Every structure is written in structure tokens, then in C-alpha cells.
Amino acid sequence: MKCEVKKAEGNVSTVMQFVLLGFSDLSHLQGFLSGVFSIIYIIVIIGNSLIIILIRLDPALQTPMYFFLANFSLSEISYVTVTLPRMLVNLWTQDRSISVLECATQMCFFLMLGATECFLLAVMAYDRYVAICNPLHYPLVMNQKMCVQLAVGSWIIGIPVQIGQTATVFSLHFCNCNQINHFFCDISPIIKLACGDTSAHEMSVYAVTMLFAAVPLMLILASYSKIISAILKLPTASGQAKAFSTCSSHLLVVVLFFGSATITYLRPKSYHSAGMDKLLSLFYTILTPMLNPMIYSLRNKDVIAALRKLLLRK
């Protein structure tokens, strides 16, 4: 497919729309991929919605830990909805074009929701830290007002910075090609299409990634270092096992999400390849949100009990 550019003033070529190449190189698997991704999207919506409904309906789950889990499930639904439906349309219709405005909107919401997920995971780690390390002060510290403030803060903290970053990226001249070698409008593949020296913009991406991914990750690691130290001081093995069980699901989600995202955005430029970027992006944008409901339900007795009560009531 040829690059589609339009001459603007000053003999500078300006891209009027982009083409998301996605998995176009796998032409013989388009039907299979659309079926697989459709099933994954349904699982993500049903699984995360079920967690939200259970937390809403069951009084036993009306605690700060599950309040934050409900927010996280909602963010997962939103996060996947930003990218996956568009990819499914591209697979179904084979029309991979996307306007500059649509691309900018998708990227902006993707970045904002990514920041939300990072900080919600950090808030959930802090909640477990207070519950395990300061159990007597837990009801006082994690009161309803504090929980709402932490949740709202996680949802809005990335908005101004990510809007600014999106505006900065799309103020560049994309004169080389309009073909984005990705399945959604991610920031790195778009910067690669820009004319001239983009090193300053690449450094900006690293800086923002450090702010919205590395900082929450450091807070999570600090919380868990305190949690593990406190658990190891418990006198009985059963007490230690019970304390670890309340954190294991969250810790597994943290490893899956931050592991793949960190490798994607913070590894050296020389190690980047389009195929690997797509694979890693699939992992943290689609597969992790699909696995989260299973991780939190299968490894959580309270959620399983709430699901049984709901089914028996029906």
C-alpha cells in the first residue's frame, strides 16, 4: 500500500490519514484472528463486568480492596475497548485506514487509561500495605473519603499530561509514510513516521513513561517490601499463608502488566522490532485484561463465594 500524503505550504508533505497495518502480513489468518480476538473481547467484557456486579451486590465485598478492584475492572474494560473494537473492524472489513483525528483520540485515551491502570495498581498495593502492616489503623486510614479520593485521583492524574503529549506528537510532520506498523495508534510507531530529528520527542516519551509507569511500580515494590517483611514476622505458617493469599492475585497482575509494558517502552531502541512490539502490546493490552478476572476469581475465596450466592439466588 502506498503512502498517502498531501502537499502543504512550504513544500512540506502532510499525512491526512494513517493506515494501521496490524496483522496484514498474516493474510491467510485474518478470519481466524478476528474470531479469536472477538472471543477475547467478549471474555474481557463479561469477566470484568461480573467482578463489578459481584462487588456491587455482595455486602461481604464492600471493602476498600474490592472497591479498588471494581475500579480496576472498569479501567480494564475501557482500556481494551479503546483498541480492540477498531482492530476487529479492520480485520472484518480489511479497511485499515484511520483519520489523523481518530488516531490521535485513540492514542490519547489509550495513554490516559494506561496511566490510570498503573496508579490503580499502586493504590491497591498501598491498600494491602495498610491492611497487613497497620491493621489497627486500617479502618481509619482507608475510610470511604480516602478511597474515593485515591480512585478519582488515579482516573484523572494522567489526563493533562497525556493530552499534552498527544498534541505534541501530532504536531509533528509525518512526511515519510502513513503506514503504522501496529494494530493501534501507539506513540512509538507514530513518532517513527515523523520527519527530521525526533530524539527530543523520544526522550519525552521515556520521561512520561518513567512518571506514569516507573513511579507507580516503585511505590508497589516499596509497599510489597514492607508487606513481605511484616508477613515473615507472623508467628504461624497459617497466618503467613493467609496474608500472602490476600496479595498473591494483585502481585501476579502487577508482574503481567508492568513486565510486558516496561519491556515495550523502556528497552533500548536498538532492541525494538515491529513484530516484538506487537506481541508485547497484545500481552498487556488484551491478554492481561482477559486473565485478570480469572486470576482474581479463581484465587479469591470471597469472590468465589459471592459468585456462588449470586448463582444460587438465580
TrEMBL record:
Transmembrane portions of the chain: 32-54, 66-84, 104-126, 146-163, 203-222, 243-267, 279-298
Q: Which ranges carry the G-protein coupled receptors family 1 profile domain?
A: 47-296
Q: What is the lineage of its organism?
A: Eukaryota, Metazoa, Chordata, Craniata, Vertebrata
Localization per record: Cell membrane
Indicate whether Membrane appears among the record's keywords: yes
Keyword Transmembrane helix included in the entry's annotation = yes
Q: Mind telling me which Gene3D superfamilies this protein's record contains?
A: Rhodopsin 7-helix transmembrane proteins
Q: Which UniProt keywords apply?
A: Cell membrane, G-protein coupled receptor, Membrane, Olfaction, Receptor, Sensory transduction, Transducer, Transmembrane, Transmembrane helix
Offer one Pfam family short name for this entry.
7tm_4
For membrane topology, the record states: Multi-pass membrane protein
One GO MF term, please? G protein-coupled receptor activity
Assigned GO CC terms: plasma membrane
Q: State the species of origin.
A: Loxodonta africana
**Into which family does the record put it?**
Belongs to the G-protein coupled receptor 1 family.
| UniProt protein name | Olfactory receptor
| PANTHER family recorded | OLFACTORY RECEPTOR (PTHR26453)
